[in-house]
Design brief:
By secondary structure, the protein is mainly beta. The protein is built from 5 helices and 33 strands. The strands form 8 sheets. A 6-stranded mixed β-sheet has the order 26-25-30-29-28-27, with no helix packed on it. Strands 20-21-22-23-24 form a 5-stranded antiparallel β-sheet, with no helix packed on it. Strands 4-1-8-6 form a 4-stranded mixed β-sheet.
Length: about 525
């Protein structure tokens, strides 16, 4: 039986057999802990905390006057042992997306600290974000500084897991009573080119002994012979394989199956093939089932959810608006002819030849239609520009609840929330104050919308945070607290500066739906 030792044991590379190790474990633990405690005294400890909650804040930059940069880990800690800084009064500029210190008389946001070996300091930041940043989910050195300072660590692999340095967008689903996680392109330590064919992992649900999502996620990666997160969906053909539309369906016998849509990508970022895959849980590998017609207007994608309408179960696909569905059967999921979209467009409309359908009174006719291109914010804006509909008639016209300014939502997820008794959307804005870094909350009485107003809950300064994904399996206190993550990267932002260790990784946030700022009222 495999014995897994705590992180402070695994930091060292000892090869004692588990049985022999168990006999000397108390002494060994004392030696290891003493060594770590001694080494921690070599560092000056800074913890940055949320002024509202007292929790450590990840991703806070502390920069000296001569541009030496430190960044808090997921515990909110920085461990400093730079010899030129020791026994000095050092001013640290302090900055973080959605958090801030007050300015001094010269307009600087920072703090002067006396840096000594073994010394400590704590800084409290005001949170501007409505959502609270919790921790980094993927990548290396998630708790680097906490390890150096011998602080308690919530996750099993605080330094590196599956040899993953960074991962693009996440999709996940509860399958066979575990959470199955899959990501896009993934970086490794050994070479600039990593895994471009969907790494994956599992984690235990909190009810089955998994971590409380407040603390973290213990990911168990599917790895290759070298210990690196292996490809799980390497479909034939050149270029990367990506997946989305990850859905769990039961067959006639009641057995669960995990499906996803795959796409093959060629430069610059063009889909040249799409189709359906099914996960083989014994091989931990997706198998190809079928290719889809590239010209088909409707297909799976985004983040799916199950919902019944008039007693009939459907899979709905959010991206971020939930305007595509298919009957929730294995057979229907494979048949693009069964997919339909909620729209006022005439049946058979395509992107470049869209026509609207009205009744005798001139009112738009909404219905679920097959073989019809789905509405998107871009398409609806064109319909408005061409005077086929008015902006007041538009279904996808979401506005800022504070300013009334129109916002264009790009990607995200939608789920029912028991606390709000409404459908809630977490989505990223396209071309906001950052290109793809502004995250919004919206809600609706109807799964199909409209979503008239939204409130910004996370902001980024010249950085992207795209493809936000809510994790409904983590909802707490009857849905009052929800958890979501997104991809933190400088990609598409125009910012050449990459945050060390954090760039191109997933970061988890928590949102309190009782926050009075989320009482959305149209402006």
């Amino acid at each position: 039986m495999h014995t897994e030792w705590p992180w402070f044991v695994r930091v060292f590379d000892f090869s004692f057999p588990p049985k022999k190790m168990a006999g000397i474990f108390p002494f060994y633990l004392f030696v290891v802990w003493s060594a770590l405690s001694a080494s921690s005294h070599e560092y000056f400890e800074i913890q940055v905390v949320d002024g509202a909650t007292g929790r450590g804040v990840p991703l806070v930059e502390l920069r000296t006057v001569n541009d030496v940069r430190f960044c808090t880990d997921s515990g909110g800690y920085v461990a400093i042992n730079s010899p030129e800084l020791l026994n000095q009064n050092v001013f640290f500029h302090v900055s973080s997306h959605g958090y801030e210190l007050p300015t001094d008389g010269f307009g600087y946001r920072g703090k002067r600290l006396h840096v000594t070996a073994g010394g400590k300091a704590k800084l409290q930041l005001k949170r501007i974000n409505i959502a609270e940043r919790l921790y980094r989910v993927t990548g290396a050195a998630i708790y680097r500084d906490s390890v150096l300072l011998a602080k308690p660590i919530p996750i099993r692999q605080p330094l590196i897991n599956g040899k993953v340095f960074g991962s693009d967008s996440v999709v996940n689903a509860v399958y066979r009573d575990k959470v199955y996680w899959f990501w896009g392109d993934t970086n490794r330590p050994a070479y600039p080119l990593g895994n471009f064919h969907v790494p994956g992992a599992t984690s235990e649900l909190p009810r089955n002994g998994g971590l409380d999502p407040e603390q973290g996620v213990n990911l168990n990666y599917f790895v290759d012979n070298n210990g690196f997160a292996k490809p799980t969906a390497q479909m034939p053909g050149k270029g990367p394989t990506w997946i989305n539309g990850l859905a769990v369906l039961k067959d006639a016998a009641g057995d669960e199956h995990l499906f996803a849509m795959y796409v093959k990508i060629k430069a610059p970022m063009t889909v040249y093939e799409r189709g359906l895959v099914r996960f083989d849980h014994e091989k931990n590998q997706f198998e190809q089932l079928t290719r889809f017609d590239l010209d088909a207007p409707l297909f799976p994608g985004g983040h799916p959810l199950l919902h019944s309408e008039n007693g009939k179960p459907y899979v709905y696909f959010a991206h971020p608006y939930t305007l595509i569905r298919v009957p929730a059967t294995v057979e229907s999921f494979r048949d693009l002819a069964k997919y339909e979209t909620y729209t006022y467009l005439s049946k058979g409309s395509r992107e470049n030849s869209a026509q609207v359908e009205r009744d005798e009174q001139g009112k738009l006719i909404y219905d679920w239609k097959t073989d019809t291109t789905p509405l998107t914010p871009k398409l609806e804006q064109r319909l408005i520009k061409n005077a086929l509909i008015t902006s007041d008639e538009g279904l996808l016209q979401t506005r800022d609840s504070e300013s009334g300014k129109p916002i264009t939502l790009h990607g995200g997820s939608v789920y029912w929330n028991d606390y709000r008794k409404r459908w809630i959307m977490i989505a990223v804005e396209s071309f906001g104050t950052s290109l793809l870094g502004e995250v919004w909350f919206s809600e609706s009485d109807s799964l199909t919308g409209p979503w008239p107003v939204a409130r910004k809950i996370v902001t980024h300064d010249k950085y992207s945070f795209y493809n936000p994904k809510q994790h409904p399996m983590f909802d707490a206190d009857q849905g009052r607290y929800i958890f979501f993550e997104g991809t933190y990267t400088n990609m598409f932002s125009g910012n050449p500066d990459r945050t060390p260790r954090y760039n191109y990784n997933q970061i988890m946030y928590k949102l309190d739906l009782a926050d009075p700022r989320l009482k959305l009222q149209p402006k």
